[in-house]
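Reminder: ligand-aware prediction takes two inputs, not one.
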Amino acid sequence: MASTADTGKTYHRECTGEAYKTAQAHISPKDITLFASCFCPFVQRIWVALEFYGIDYRLGHRLRCFDLDEVDPYKKPADLLEVSPKGLVPALRLETYKPPRAVNESTVILEFLEDLASSTVKRSLLPPVTDPYARVLIRLQLDHVNRTLVPAFYRFIQAQEESQIQTGKEFVQAIDGLVKLFQRAAQETNSSCGLWSDGGELSLTDVMVAPWLFRATNVLAHYRGFMLPEGPQFRSYMERLLNYPAFKRTCSTADLYIDSYER
Ligand SMILES: N[C@@H](CCC(=O)N[C@@H](CS)C(=O)NCC(=O)O)C(=O)O
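Here is what comes back for the chain with glutathione:
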């Protein structure tokens, strides 16, 4: 559902498509509340992880895009500031503590959920602790995603006309770099390449990177005419990633992302 802001631009206040159905199924109170907005890729990381682990959660009523121009933290909702000091989503409120406690920052929340899941639902996005080398290969992939690929995505989408070619190349190089790390993991171990390997299970890297690779197929395709790298192995990886049930359940329709990034 789209609304028109004062600027005349259209933005979405609610998720759509598959994500809408999932959101509707998570409105009743639970021990964990996810503070979210519908377009945010950092939020999507957490949402996918919760769906994958099967940890019960409630979506905060802010699964909508609050006005990104509203930088004044005092204008942010008080309940959001309680769980996220800078007023950024995602954040979790943990109702099991009295009074409730909170966690913010997507990478930190993912670590928290991994710890929680390993002791409760017994599901994991990492190789077993008994295989530290396989785990370190995943951490190298995560480091690359967070320090290279995600920043390259933003440089590309924000680039002025004259720097678009250069920033587009940087983004492609960042994807190539990730592929090399996947290939290394496939060569050196058999348990740290996640969905990269046919028949593999979702990994923490897949969860960490999926929201941006997905937005490359809609937002970057729309605003930058971007096409993902060719090559059958990468194509099959994308196919497995974007169709992975826990990921798909958190996806709105392409127009929501395209409209959100117009701003
Ligand atoms: N480093 C943060 C980034 C989160 C972030 O930038 N969230 C954006 C939405 S995608 C947000 O809350 N923006 C609101 C604002 O800047 O006021 C994380 O990984 O959780």
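The first helix runs from residue 17 to 24. The chain has two domains: 2-119, 132-201+203-243. We will return to this case in the review session.
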